[in-house]
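Slide 14.
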Amino acid sequence: MFWIINDNIKFCPDKNVLVSLNKPELSVILTTPASRCLALLLESSPEVVNQKEFFDKVWGEDGMIVPANTLYQNISIIRRGLRSAGETSDTLVATVPRKGFQIHKSVKVTRVETDGADTEEPAEVSLPEAPLTVPVEQPAVNTSQVPVEKKTPRKLRRLFFPVLLMIISFALGYFMLHHIFRDNPDKDFFQNYTINRTENGCHYFSQSDDIKSIGNFSRFIKIIMKTGLDCKKYPWIYFSSSSNAPALSVLACRKPYEAKPNAECTALYFRGYMQ
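Slide 15: predicted structure.
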């Protein structure tokens, strides 16, 4: 399909080409937006096409939003293209103030349907495109992304080494603890403790000589008994601190704390009683 304008110019919208019928060597390639605008004007001729119709059908279908100045630039491209193809009238595309644009009512417009493709090739260089087409071409965006891709491995390496150190530290700690608690399961944590007194069903153990003294030991037992400790439930009492410590620390256990520390103990902690 193509259009004949004033029996003088042939417009092929599928190729965006204007060709002079009298001088075929005169031809112009329009920008794609300008070609769409001209096609819309010809299809609506002689009616006025308002700005909203241009924006919706020329750019809106591609999801683009453009300012009014872009429309004016493309109308200007159409007018220059028609002049370059041999059209002498400056009023072929008329401006209708506050409404839009139209093909002037005096212009003869003919639509021609064809089965085959138009074989004529344009001889002239195309008109420069409107500034609108510049944002569409975005090779510069790709070049700006190249440094980012180069920096990515560095960032990964910076994150990798701290994580690796954390994993190694965790593994070393695990194996050390594994060695201590698995390879030495029978260690007696209270092997140096000796029984100092048995009273009211409670067995009192200590490794500190000053706690074993009769005066201190009696005082500490009174402190423990004030908590309501039941010697029937927790008969095994271990003093794990000395009289020089800032606080009195005691383990009360249901079973003797022998080779394996699984005596069901509870900890008692007293501050201000060691003076």
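Speaker note: The chain is about 40% helix and 20% strand.
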